[in-house]
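Notes on consecutive records. When two proteins share a document, each keeps its own sequence and its own token line. Never mix them. Below: protein one.
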Amino acid sequence: MATDERSLAMASAQSNTASAASQNLRLAEELAVTHLEKDAILNEQQACLHLYAHIYPANASCKNVNWTIIQGEELAYVTPQGLLVAHGTQAGQIIVRATTIDGSQLHQDLTVEKHLSPFC
């Protein structure tokens, strides 16, 4: 096989592999956000919430999300792992958003109430 033919065959094989891989990608169809703690509040006794993103179907290719605060950044921060941590002394409402990163563009918000307390 000549060099040009071999290059063409390799390019064709790579294209078919990439096409097959993208066909096997299963995008998220549904996203739900929950928390470990009983109530979605931050106060002196509960200064953080452990947030979880549940992505469906169960065989979705990517189960990761980006966590962001879309309201109340002055009241708390969220880690990449979904830990919402209160800071400052103000009370108010925090809206945390989980967004899928698989290209499905799903997001789900969770509203958390922060009560007036002396946080770090």
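Protein two starts on the next line and is unrelated to protein one.
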Amino acid sequence: MQTGLNRTRQERNDNRSGSTRQRRNGNSDGGTRPGRSRNDGYSVSRGNSRRSSPGQFRFGTGTRKNHNRKKASVDPFPVDLSVPGSIYSADRRSARKKFLYALLALFLLVFIYLSFRTTKIAFLPPWQTVANLFTCLKLNLAGMFHMNYYESRRAVIEAHPAYLETTTRLSGVVSIVAMGAAMSVAGVVFQSVFRNPIAVPTMLGVSSGINIANFILVMQFSLLAVTKTSLRFIYGYIGSLSILFLVIGVSRLTSKNGSWSVVDVLLIGTTLTRVLTQILSSIQNAYMDDAALQTLSEMNMYGTGIGNARGWIFLALALLFGMFPVLLMRNSLNVVTFTEEESKTMGLNANVLRVLALIFSTILIVAAQIYCGDVGMLALLVPHACRYLFGSNTRDLIFSSIIVGGIMMILCRFIVALTMFNQYLSVISVGMIINVISIPLMIFILFTQRRGWE
């Protein structure tokens, strides 16, 4: 009887081990997985199998003597980036979808801004705004090709209510979006070059160069300094680029190997900015009267706007020589975030790329601050928002910052337009609104996710 019980237990154990082997091979009905022999202790899918010796225990897909071998390292996330359904493609589709949403939001805000009246707090009907824009386009084309329709422009304008208000808003909204995009792209470049999430133009002395240029203009032309469009750009670029090259030159002199360090540039730029601000403030209080001080303060805080056709020419040149080269360098700007040794292995000189990127971004910063005033906080806020929404790739950051920067400037300019009808709030500038909006947004971004810097 004891022998019968032992035989029953042995059969039960054999049945359990057989079921376990069948489940391990992926076939519950006793079959085998393709390319694997049922009796093989170790086999591969191409038919090269090695039969285990009699009586040797089979352990999974190998014998006991193979069990102690070091397992080959296997990628825990085997994702093919070229497959349309991979994680990378899903992220790219999500980023493109967000970019389209942001672009639609920008067009919607531009249309709302164009519909806002300049004489009172009210909005034009949407169809009337569209009719005014279409009439403006027809008049410009007729004037360009000397058509008869242009000669009757006075009657055409009188037939469209609030036509002049819409066209006035249109000229302003183009410059606002362009300057918001310029300052935001410059912020992306500064943070990428210095590998620092709080790097802004004010830390390198670029804004101090613009303030020095405005000071010289006011000392030279007094109240007429606002009308000197050409000299504003010439003095501004000379002052900003001179400080930029001075900071880089001092950093190269203080370094051991002759190449400038990111940390040294930030320290020297911050110190030089502080010193120039104190010197400039002392000279202003000693040699400028109240009218000149007010003019200088308005130029630094509010900017001077486009003004005339010459202003549009300088705006176009700034975008051509500042924005266009940055767009061409969008793929190479990822290299400047690496160390010097890592960039050399890729065949690129990171120091040259950094200097060129800083020069092009300085061109954008000077144009933005001359037109819009003190909006340097935009260069800190928009890159963080875009990094949170679109990722840390520099190419994606540049394109997304153009849209998000335009949205931020339109929102701030719209708030300023609402406050213009109140005599106590009419002193608010775009820079003030940006500083107020940036506080809760930065707190939200820092508490949720600091993407790309951790």
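For the record: The chain is about 65% helix and 0% strand.
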